Amino acid sequence: MSKIIRIGTRDSELALWQAKIVQSLLENLGYKTQLVPVKSTGDLVLDKPLYELGITGIFTRTLDIAMLNHDIDIAVHSLKDVPTVLPNGIVQAAVLKRGNVNDTLVFKNNEEFLGSKEAVIATGSLRRRAQWLNRFPTHTVVDLRGNVNLRLQKLENNENWNGAIFAAAGIGRIGLRPEEAINLDWMIPAPAQGAIMITALDEDEFVLNACKELNHEETEICTTIEREFLNKLEGGCTAPIGALAYIKDEEVNFKGVLLSVDGSKRIDVTRVKKLGEHHDIANFCANFVIERGGKRLMDTIKNASKKTNVYSTKSFTEAQRLLFHEKVTIESSDFIKISLNRIHPRFVKNEIQNVIITSKNAVEALLTNFSPIELQFKNIYCVGRRTKRLVEQKIGKVTHFENNAKKLANYLVDYMEGSEVTYFCSDLRLDDLPTILEKNNIKVTELEAYQTKYDGLKVENSVEGVMFYSPSTVESFVQKNKVEVIAFCIGETTANEAKKHFNDVRIAKVPTVESVIELVNEHYI
């Protein structure tokens, strides 16, 4: 045991306390050690860039570099701060027996503010912020950074703050837990909170064998599950993810949570498995969360700091959002609002020989006013596959459909039976269809089935492309935005309107939202 094990540590009070614990344990086993506080990466030299070595983690990067440079033999970390994927060549050598896993609220004066509508709580953790706002949505959460001592001092100095949240293990280990503190048993801790972890080079057998004697198996099992859950959700410190596993009566108990940053959305999961049969817990629970909206929540969190580059003038479903390429940061809202009109019964009292329906909104208006049996239409002509599908599901067989109104009008001129047609339309319908028909001596009776109201908003300057689904969405957009963008259009009719305002106009292969999404993705590949 002649080799001196150099123990790398950050130089904060808590980091030094943790390193000294490891030093004491190793020396009790007969090993020689030396503490090496590492301040910064400024003087450290590497012959490879950080990304090639897989180095991440704001709290661990300095020690990772020092180890790869052979300036230290082991590094001591709070395991909750360690990225779930370690740098190339570095491995987890041991996890010490876990301390207090809880979060702790340090408060001023008394706890009465917990029952108040208004209160101010300080924390630098997204996870703590989200869980606090989930439980106390009317409270204000302010940012708090720095080491434990500095954060406690900031709490004392800010008169408007009611309390601040700390890791119970952190303030307990250095003897700074004040009397005015309570554990937050309801708050799910960070994955691996309360655990101290040792890393070493995977080639250093002497050090690995030494650290192996310090490893606490139960803590290793539980923290590994928690970190696998975190890794599967692709979280890290940028997402409000909590996880806690513990062993009781030969069973592994797990609970996890993913929240939106503001705490308004929350997905919980629990699982219990026999010890030895627990290896799928993390994967099962992560998939459970993902399938219940977790993917959308994570994407929203990841994209929060990104600038929107594509805007949709129609809101998306969850399934549609998942179709976008990773380079697309999408926002959406409905740029037109639909108001269904009352249609007088006299218009459908008798069978109508020829009917034109150009949108699903017209279908909804008809079905709001009448039952399907009242709608006696001999020939129904439609625009769009989805309108056709809805008509055939709700009203009756469609005689013919085209992808745009102009094509349908030309078809009707050549093939329609009779010389009259009833057109259920919007107050903002285009002129193409009725104009072509009337020029060819076909009488058009227009019934205003619904009203289209513009409800656009001004988009960010970062928006490069806009998705349009009707001429009305184009008109609504240009009312509030005088910018040049790529116009991704659902069909020719929409594209014709877009060409009046934009130079780069692209048309989807088929008139569906999914096809417009495909058009956007092709641009960003």
Question: Could you give the topology of this structure?
Answer:
Elements: E1 4-9, H1 13-28, E2 32-37, H2 50-53, H3 61-68, E3 74-78, E4 90-95, E5 103-107, E6 120-122, H4 126-135, E7 140-142, H5 148-157, E8 163-167, H6 168-173, E9 181-183, E10 196-201, H7 205-212, H8 217-232, E11 241-248, E12 251-259, E13 266-274, H9 281-303, E14 310-312, H10 318-321, E15 330-332, E16 336-340, E17 352-357, H11 360-369, E18 377-383, H12 385-394, E19 400-402, H13 405-415, E20 420-426, H14 432-439, E21 443-454, E22 465-468, H15 471-480, E23 486-489, H16 492-498, E24 505-507, H17 513-524
Parallel strand pairs: 1-2, 1-3, 6-7, 6-8, 14-15, 14-22, 17-18, 17-20, 18-19, 20-21, 22-23, 23-24
Antiparallel strand pairs: 3-10, 4-10, 5-8, 5-9, 11-12, 12-13, 16-21
Helix pairs in contact: 8-9, 13-14, 15-16
Kindly describe this structure:
There is one protein chain. This protein is α/β, with parallel strands linked by helices. Helix content is 33%, strand content 25%. It contains 17 helices and 24 strands. The strands form five sheets. It has a six-stranded mixed β-sheet. It starts with a strand and ends with a helix. It comes from Mariniflexile soesokkakense. This is Hydroxymethylbilane synthase. GO terms for molecular function: hydroxymethylbilane synthase activity. It catalyses: 4 porphobilinogen + H2O = hydroxymethylbilane + 4 NH4(+).
Question: From the helix content, strand content and strand pairing, which structural class follows?
Answer: alpha/beta
**Order of adjacent strands in the largest pleated sheet:** 16-21-20-17-18-19
Strand content: 15-25%
Rough shape?
A: elongated
Instruction: Tally the beta strands.
Output: 24
Count of DSSP helices? 17
* Euclidean distance between termini CA atoms: 57 Å
Residue stretches low in confidence (pLDDT < 50, at least 5 long) are 41-56
The percentage helix is: 25-40%
What radius of gyration results from the CA coordinates? 32 Å
GO molecular function, one term: hydroxymethylbilane synthase activity
Keywords: Porphyrin biosynthesis, Transferase
Domain Porphobilinogen deaminase N-terminal: 5-207
Function: Tetrapolymerization of the monopyrrole PBG into the hydroxymethylbilane pre-uroporphyrinogen in several discrete steps.
